[in-house]
Task: inverse folding
């Protein structure tokens, strides 16, 4: 789309971009830098005042992928990106997709805007593979094609999904399994109830990592993926997640829900290569135990 240009005299990167592509709006040029679409001598440069010298080659790539660790809109950290996938670390208090009350501050909106490089007329978008509760932080996958979405969702039950939670109280057993039948008919809260045609079976395996200060740090592995499953099971065990007043927590020491999606393992939808991503427990939760 934009032919590479060779620098003929010393300049800073942003003024050089303005002067070299004068027909491109300055907002769009800044977006190139923000989303790491600018290459200098084949290397991604996002620093606006990067010094250029004669002989440097400046290129704009349309297939730009964020480098691991890049933070884009609303505090989203990119862990991995290729032509079919975006794997991110979602911060707490961020919706996956729009609600009536919130249209723009969502992971879906921010990632779509990123793929479109700020151009609302572009057609690129992401497809949602799974969701995390608004209050939960951690690893999420988005597909960049409908085909990838279909493949990932078809195999989602086989993906390995692990969480870490800081809970009130001390779980007595070092490991075990929670099982119940969940009633998800209410849009606000999920309940464990006797089995019926309206319920869904939920299974969560747990392993205690640490006990301290009257709290437990626990790792949870999902066998099923029901709404609020971990939160309900821990509340049923008498150890609700800290900050989870909806399910009976009495304390909120980190000013957020103490639940984090820390590990995800799944096969790539095109190559079938195993991918594994980890995200450390946020400091504000780790310090609680």
Result:
């Amino acid at each position: 789309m934009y032919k590479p240009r060779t620098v003929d005299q010393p300049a800073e990167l942003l003024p050089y971009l303005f002067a070299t592509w004068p027909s491109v709006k300055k907002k769009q040029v800044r977006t190139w830098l923000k989303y790491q679409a600018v290459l200098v001598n084949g290397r991604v440069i996002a620093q606006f005042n990067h010094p250029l010298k004669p002989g440097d080659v400046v290129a704009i790539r349309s297939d730009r992928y964020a480098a691991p660790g890049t933070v884009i809109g609303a505090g989203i950290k990119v862990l991995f990106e290729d032509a079919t996938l975006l794997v991110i670390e979602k911060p707490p208090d961020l919706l996956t997709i729009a609600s009536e009350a919130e249209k723009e501050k969502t992971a879906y909106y921010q990632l779509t805007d990123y793929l479109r490089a700020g151009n609302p007329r572009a057609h690129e978008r992401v497809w949602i593979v799974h969701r995390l509760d608004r209050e939960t932080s951690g690893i999420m996958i988005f597909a960049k094609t409908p085909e990838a979405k279909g493949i990932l969702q078809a195999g989602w039950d086989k993906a390995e999904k692990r969480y870490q939670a800081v809970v009130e109280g001390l779980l007595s057993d070092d490991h075990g399994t929670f099982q119940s039948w969940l009633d998800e008919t209410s849009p606000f809260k999920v309940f464990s109830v006797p089995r019926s045609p309206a319920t869904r079976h939920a299974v969560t395996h747990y392993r205690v990592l640490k006990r301290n200060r009257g709290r437990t740090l626990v790792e949870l592995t999902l066998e099923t993926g029901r709404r609020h499953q971990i939160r309900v099971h821990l509340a049923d065990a008498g150890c609700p997640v800290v900050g989870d007043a909806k399910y009976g927590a009495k304390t909120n020491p980190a000013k957020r829900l103490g639940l984090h999606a820390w590990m995800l393992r799944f096969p790539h939808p095109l190559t079938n290569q195993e991918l594994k991503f980890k995200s450390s427990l946020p400091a504000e939760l780790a310090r609680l135990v």
